[in-house]
Design brief:
Layout (H helix, E strand, L loop, with lengths): L1 H11 L4 H8 L3 H8 L7 H11 L12 E4 L2 E4 H43 L1
Antiparallel strand pairs: 1-2
Length: 119
């Protein structure tokens, strides 16, 4: 899993957990949960970790299955993480649209009320 790979790469570079946590501006316990796969790491955070550890992002996925697509090896875990992120974005967009529709209905009702009063 990604968390275990983060720990391995951190330890290979002789970086202490608290030092990496400080550089990420998170609690050491949060980093521990990431490394133990108890919480998911966001793509942005993973890019930040890769930069700090000075490794390419693919190094986090070396032990995971990949698929060959147009002569490019794509990690299945990365694809799954991307899909999950898109689902979250879609849910947020749907909530936003529902709120806009609700606000539009309220405004439409107010306009109808005012028009009826004028007549």
């Amino acid at each position: 899993m990604i968390g275990h790979q983060i720990r391995k790469l951190r330890e290979d570079r002789k970086i202490k957990r608290n030092d990496l946590a400080d550089r990420l501006n998170i609690d050491e316990s949060t980093l521990g949960k990431i490394e133990n796969n108890q919480i998911k790491v966001s793509a942005d955070r993973l890019l930040e970790i890769a930069k700090i550890l000075e490794v390419p992002i693919n190094d986090f996925f070396v032990s995971m299955p990949s698929v060959n697509f147009n002569n490019n090896h794509i990690n299945i875990a990365y694809i799954n993480q991307f899909i999950e992120a898109q689902k979250e974005n879609t849910e947020q967009q749907n909530k936003f649209i529902e709120e806009l529709i609700s606000q539009n209905k309220i405004l439409t009702d107010k306009i109808d009320f005012l028009v009826a009063k004028i007549k």
